[in-house]
Design a protein that fits this description.
The structure is a homotetramer.
Chain A (H helix, E strand, L loop, with lengths): L10 H5 L3 E4 L12 H14 L3 E4 L11 H15 L4 E4 L6 H13 L4 E5 L8 H12 L4 E5 L1 H4 L5 H7 L5 E6 L3 H9 L4 E3 L5 H7 L4 E4 L6 H9 L4 H14 L6 H9 L6 E3 L7 H14 L19 E3 L3
Parallel strand pairs in A: 1-2, 1-8, 2-3, 3-4, 4-5, 5-6, 6-7, 7-8, 9-10
């Protein structure tokens, strides 16, 4: 689409974001979005100091959305919260066609930046990977997301170097580790850590701008402090058991379980995600007590949910 | 979707809208939306005093959009212009499922009101028609659209009477004629004329609140005057040849041809629409001269386009 | 799509079909297709002598299907019954893009012919209408469907005349009346009556090839006799009360109600269709007794269903 | 969907298939399917002795298809070739909803078996993975596909063991290696090698039933011999350079390049795939000469294509 770029967000404004939450998408019992709960989640992020949200990321289960749901959620977030928080739409796909279409639509409904993954599962050559990203880079501020443990294929630094020719490249969400983070920051490329367990060191020892966080869904204030308050090994140490708990199974299984037990979402899972088992659910309640309920989102008592409390939906 | 209704537009704010433009959707040569041209069209509507736009109405060719395009366009319009103009999404369908889904999505991306048609083509019983509307009325401010010449089935006043039980019913866009308009206004039901040729009398003699206009796409300032400036038979008479020209073939064939010749959109038609023939195109240029180029949108000279200037697209 | 035409059905084979049933689509309680019931319905049509089925016509509620459901149903019917019955896919649309896409897909999954409607609701000029049909005519054997009471626009004989230049035009399903039927047959154009009440005269007095029937869903054997057994005014008279009952409300409301009471489908309606009221449901049982249960499809006793027996679905 | 299972393929008939080709999907210059070329490719597979094709696998670029294209291609293949070759639809997805919907539709249009992948990219817990597969297993004969290098997550033998409780489980397409193959065959579980370079040993030394092959797209007769003709290390050795060439970059990049140079498909790539570079294209021509043109599909001379010969499409 030919579109007016007057309203375009400056890439520089994206580059300086420090705490970005990969926001959870909550569901109704029939599997549709629970927008009221979603709005509450986003409001809490804003209240606790998150500067941006990623809509429909892997944490937000974009991979389980139809594209119309996905774009709707981006547009909704922009409309209701776009003045208070930057909205980064995960409009990436392993299909270049889908990435092009979704990214056009995402910017059309006002998202401030796009998050783009390399073609997972299908994979491609280095040249194909670069062509894929170049197909969408011209549309607006863009963050490239590298997570080989999910995609099966690393985005090598030489691919990123090629993409820096575009003024729209805001930076990289990097999950490979802090050596890679350091490599980028030493070369003037903006990086966000994509690993909550490494983000403290990434930020304070390796030059990362900040984090794209899962953990901030549950303890946004503490993650804010971790990213803004200077080197803080004791806070990092305090959070590590929670982070390890959250990533015990592939994300967002832990997060979904946690938010349900905190009473801020209904205990509804879209398959193939299923809740953590009872023993882990008990562990979470203990973690909340140790860290302090007041540091977690929501105001209800945290509780251990029973197996029967959860609703798993395959058709929605 | 469960959604927060804090941001909901008050139905009363919809009821008072007087000049509502059923906005044209312009296209690129490959048939995708030309959002830059669209933004210009909407901006001109705002500048000339339109208070609302209908997005993806029959004039905007909602029937030729995929739903994701349609919802994207609603979200886009809300994001870029929602502070200056009310955005009414045509989220109606002859399929109740589609109407439900689109209306949920339209309100989620911030539209201020929904326009709903009765089930055209498939048709249904009176009871089915009422059930159809009741499936979407709870979602937000709603306007019912009656145009039997398109749908093959009149929405009788007794159906509307039943629907007035919902506080969300803002009113009726009525194309059956001014007797029907009068019937509704005498019974306290808000009506907009859906016929440009009748809207002057509807407004000033039969109690209509205003018009949902096609003609205002090309002469928004004159339509504003017609709806706000008091009874004005000479202005009405002056506009009638233009209105007749616009509706010589099923709308939006005339409108599309006119806007292309005014230079405000590219001469691209999505099939099954094709431009008016050359003789009619010449007529339009003469009409512009008679009414005054300054009253029409755009700043380029109006010109007669050749057959070869037009691009017709079937795949897009 | 470029496709091999070796397997293409000859247009001549379509032209000679006399009894074509616009087959009902039955549903499960959650609104998805009940393919087991569907397969039974098609099997009964074959057993009683129908030569073709229209899949996803207005009777089959194509207007309430997503396109992927629709094409799947065409493919399914071809796969399971294509050797015993001709499969005519209603791949028409008021959007030329959709008609092109669906028709390509329909022929790709093996349908023998396409049924095409003119652009209802959106409507267009005569030239636009012809362009619309020409966009799909090259793909395979095609029947044009004229039903102004649904579309709001007649397909005039001069449009059909233009389309006869294509060897793929099999003929016209005409609902305007027997004068129009006669006009076509006198001009060598194949016609099927689209009105059950007129089809006897259309066939035996005005040269129609046969009928595209709703009524044959319930009494296929009698409709076979009406179309094959020579002039038969008494059979016609015997059927008229049933036909009038079926069309008391817009089709397929009566048909859906009837098939549910005959026990051959579950009493599930996709909105905006709702069952006929109790009084009419009682009437149907009496009609079955008068005409003879043995002439109707199914083997269960016909019974009067209660309001509570019906399931109406809006989301599916 | 409730469906009649009379026509269901016996799982036993799937278990005995030895040469299964993951068939390439060819494109027209605008990116749509080239069904004529596709039909030729399938015909050649049948002529050379392939017993089944996987439609829309990773080789067939199912990940770049919309689901309606994908199901249409399955239905098409069943209709035109289902009597001569088994049609295995890759109706897997990382979204359980999509897997359910596609698998229902695939069986409805007549596919003989489904191929199911574990949730790649999004990943899930072991329990979630099993739930995912159980959501589709009841629908018909099923093959589970394990390829951690693409999915980022191994399907462990204990997951497969759980799934063997379903009579529909035909077996496993295993890419982890021949130790895993051996483990399964020793435990009575049918396995196909998913790696062309290992399939000879898998078949003749480790009990694999056969192969799901990429290489058989280009040399179906030789792959037939490799799977049916007994242990044949010299043939295996002869094929290894071709196999290594095909997998030099992520499949199907090599295959697409090869088939284009063999003249059996147009040189059209859907992004993110791009052709192999010139040096590799020259290598292929030499490989053809060494192995013998007569062993490859097609009848045109193999030739080195220029960069300009290729068409890369991002929108289609």
């Amino acid at each position: 689409m030919r579109t007016s770029f007057e309203n375009k967000t400056a890439t520089e404004d994206i580059k300086s974001l420090r705490l970005i939450t990969a926001i959870k998408t909550p569901y109704l019992p029939d599997g549709r979005f629970d927008l009221e709960a979603y709005d509450d989640l986003v409001s809490m992020q804003i209240a606790y100091g998150a500067e941006a949200v990623i809509v429909g990321g892997t944490t937000g289960e974009g991979q389980l959305m139809s594209w119309d749901e996905h774009i709707m959620l981006i547009g909704h977030t922009v409309n209701y919260f776009g003045g208070s928080v930057k909205v980064i739409g995960n409009t990436g796909s392993n299909s270049t066609r889908e990435a092009i279409h979704a990214t056009e639509q995402g910017f059309a409904v006002g998202m401030h930046a796009a998050l783009h993954i390399n073609p997972y599962y299908g994979k491609t050559s280095l040249e194909g990977m670069v062509s894929h990203f170049e197909s969408v880079l011209s549309m607006g501020p863009t963050i490239i997301y590298n997570v080989p443990s999910r995609t099966g294929q690393d985005i090598p630094p030489r691919a990123i170097r090629t993409l820096t020719q575009s003024a729209n490249l805001a930076g990289v969400k990097e999950c490979v580790g802090n050596d890679r983070v350091k490599h980028y920051t030493e070369n003037g490329i903006v990086v966000w850590s994509g690993n909550d367990d490494e983000c403290h060191d990434a930020r304070w020892s390796h030059g990362a701008t900040g984090v794209m966080s899962v953990t901030s869904n549950v303890v946004p204030g503490l993650m804010r402090k971790l990213m803004f308050g200077g080197k803080n090994p004791s806070l990092h140490a305090k959070l590590m058991p929670l982070i390890e708990w959250l990533f015990h199974e592939p994300n967002p299984i832990g997060l979904n379980t946690a938010l349900a037990q905190l009473g801020v979402i209904r205990p509804v899972f879209r398959l193939p995600y299923v809740p953590l088992p009872l023993a882990k659910r008990v562990e979470f309640v203990n973690l909340v007590k140790e860290i302090g309920r007041e540091n977690f989102v929501g105001e209800k008592d945290v509780r251990v949910l029973d197996d029967d409390d959860f609703i798993l939906v395959g058709r929605y």
